[in-house]
Amino acid sequence: MHDTDHVSDARIAVREAKLADGRDLIYFDDVDTTLAPERRADERVLDPRPANAHMRQDPLTGEWISIAAARQNRVFLPPAHLDPLAPQTVDNPSEIPSVYDVAVFENRSPSFGPELADPDASSAETLADLRRIGLERTRSSVGRCEVVCFSPAHEGSFGSLTRSRARTVIEAWAHRTAALSALPGVEEVFPFENRGREIGVTLPHPHGQIYSYPYVTPRTERLLAAIDDYGPTLMADILDRERNGPRVLLSGEHWTAFVPFAARWPIEIHLLPHRHVPDFAATTLAERDELAGLYLQLLQGVDRLYDTPTPYIAAWHQAPVHEHRDDVRLMLQLTSPRRAADKLKYLAGSEAAKGAWIGDVTPEAAAEALRRAIHATDAAADAPAPATATATATATATEGTRA
């Protein structure tokens, strides 16, 4: 399955538990954690989990649509004292029973799972069947969906984390990618973060998700077709060209971030590792360490473009579990519909109906604006602050990450 064994960071403790209805819960402790090893048990009385969703194929495109009606009942913008991702209290019977640094648990109303495929089924035969076109074809939405809580704080995003906490989240992505890729029937593993009401976020709590699909997603299928046409060096050649071009935003020893040549969105950023890495599980500890700082720098620059936080989707594309692992490289695609301080790009007829995009901003102009914002963020971070302000900021950050 994987061409590289998953390397785990022994400094970050992993503590496995169960929720009251049997769902998996995994705690990841920061390197500099102040938490004790013990975790409280989940003593809630919960209803049985909803029935597995099912998929239907669109014969006009070959795409599979998961019909997950139970998701209609999920929590929508609750008050802070009823935050379902905060540690449990007497008044808040949330999903996580104990105080935590980073916590990952199975979604209570998943789009895929909790049922899994037959472990004896052939992946090649299953994928060939899924790619065949027919009328009114259905399949069970097997797989797994998990929630990744970045912090116990009620509000925030990945960009508001400390570097230590960011590193813990990246370790959780690597751990869960390896574990989920080993589940029967899982063909693609997708970590992502939705940020902002404009994107449709229903919880302000800093968190992301991981979807484990029972098929290769349409976006990845198009990438595989492009690789088949161009050749297996497509992603490496794109990175080499961009690293020497005008749209680079940040570059380190192991990673480079840039605005792509044919960006669709007003804000679109790609971030790739310099060597071929199919997924998070195959990254080295040094690559994860650098990514923690570089990714924070990138997100904080995106937020500095305007006076208010920028909505975005941070999508970590990984190679399929069983195919093209030597061709498809791990890549972040961060997109935002924000085209001005008070304007959003809405998908109109051409984009939504035909998939024919019209860009509002040239990628070169977007790259220049993002570079200025990133440099301004760096300058602000390097500037000395008054002692009282520094002490207040430190106290606030500590309270936010340990509350």
Automatic annotation (TrEMBL):
Residues 233-371 form the Galactose-1-phosphate uridyl transferase C-terminal domain. Pathway: Carbohydrate metabolism; galactose metabolism. It is an enzyme of class 2 (transferase). Residues 54-216 form the Galactose-1-phosphate uridyl transferase N-terminal domain. This is Galactose-1-phosphate uridylyltransferase. PANTHER family: GALACTOSE-1-PHOSPHATE URIDYLYLTRANSFERASE (PTHR11943:SF1). Its cofactor is Zn(2+). The keyword Metal-binding applies. GO terms for molecular function: nucleotidyltransferase activity. It catalyses: alpha-D-galactose 1-phosphate + UDP-alpha-D-glucose = alpha-D-glucose 1-phosphate + UDP-alpha-D-galactose. Transmembrane segments: none annotated. NCBIfam families: galT_1. The keyword Transferase applies. Belongs to the galactose-1-phosphate uridylyltransferase type 1 family. Residues 379-403 are annotated as: Disordered. It comes from Agromyces salentinus. Its EC number is 2.7.7.12. Keywords: Carbohydrate metabolism, Galactose metabolism, Metal-binding, Nucleotidyltransferase, Transferase, Zinc. Gene3D superfamilies: HIT-like.
